Amino acid sequence: MSVIKVKNELKALKNPEKIAVFDNFFKTGKGQYGEGDEFYGLTAQEIKDVAKKYQDIDLTEVLTLLKDKVHEVRMAALRILVHKYKKGDDKQKKQVFDIYLKNTKYINNWDLIDVTTPDIVGDYLLKRDRAVLYKLARSKSLWEKRISMLATYTFIRNKEFEDTLKIAEILLADDHDLIHKAVGWMLREVGNRDREVEELFLRKYYQKMPRTMLRYAIEKFPESLRQKYLKGEM
């Protein structure tokens, strides 16, 4: 069974020295956002290599992997889903998209989202109705809210900024640091393509923004302009 082979190959690469580092980096302690997550301590390339080897396994097996307790197994499953999405016809793309959004509780750390959401959710919605993103943005789930923001990265790459700004507005008052970082990052990406669009948004909201969100958003600004925003002088 491919599921067992994938899990065994990942487990064989286990690096105990890195597990403690990952536990801290991905905040797996009690009460932290990654509480209870388990790691093998693998590199991104190691996971990618195993996922590539098994990229043609059945979707039902991918779903089993996605529900695994080990972080790297879930990441491998998500990388396989990205492959299946990119290589699939319209029917398979919809299948992958549906599986992704029906299983967000297993896509439960920022790296799992950041590596895969733009390529699946963002791409699928690029030429479709995007109402689902607004539902996700108003979810009680930290991960669904981050998915809503990261999906817009695909739109930004296609120079479509409206949904990024609207979802950023919804998430302005969110209290989680991971949302502050995601929103600030996407605003920065908008600015990388059109500074005027980003600044129109910032001038309206920068005084209401959490500090981390603002810092991420203005990271690439000239230092003199960055300081004006930080000092509230705009």
Keywords, separated by commas or semicolons:
234 residues, mainly alpha, ARM repeat  fold, Leucine-rich Repeat Variant, 14 helices, DNA alkylation repair protein
Explain what you see:
This protein has 234 residues and is mostly helical. Helix 8 packs antiparallel against helix 9. The protein is globular. It comes from Candidatus Falkowbacteria bacterium CG10_big_fil_rev_8_21_14_0_10_39_11. This is DNA alkylation repair protein.
Question: How does the SSE layout of this entry go?
Answer:
Elements: H1 2-12, H2 16-25, H3 44-53, H4 59-66, H5 71-87, H6 90-102, H7 110-125, H8 131-137, H9 142-157, H10 162-171, H11 177-193, H12 195-205, H13 211-217, H14 223-230
Average pLDDT score = 95
Count of alpha and pi helical runs: 14
Instruction: Give the proportion of residues in helices.
Output: 55-70%
**What's the helix-strand series?**
HHHHHHHHHHHHHH
Radius of gyration: 19 Å
Q: Show unreliable segments.
A: none
CATH class of the largest domain: Mainly Alpha
Q: Report the portion of residues in β strands.
A: under 5%
CATH architecture of the largest domain: Up-down Bundle
Tell me about the biggest sheet? none
Shape: globular
Total beta strand runs? 0
Query: What's the CATH topology label of the largest domain?
Result: ARM repeat  fold
InterPro entries: ARM-type_fold, DNA_alkylation
Pfam families: DNA_alkylation
Protein name: DNA alkylation repair protein
Organism: Candidatus Falkowbacteria bacterium CG10_big_fil_rev_8_21_14_0_10_39_11
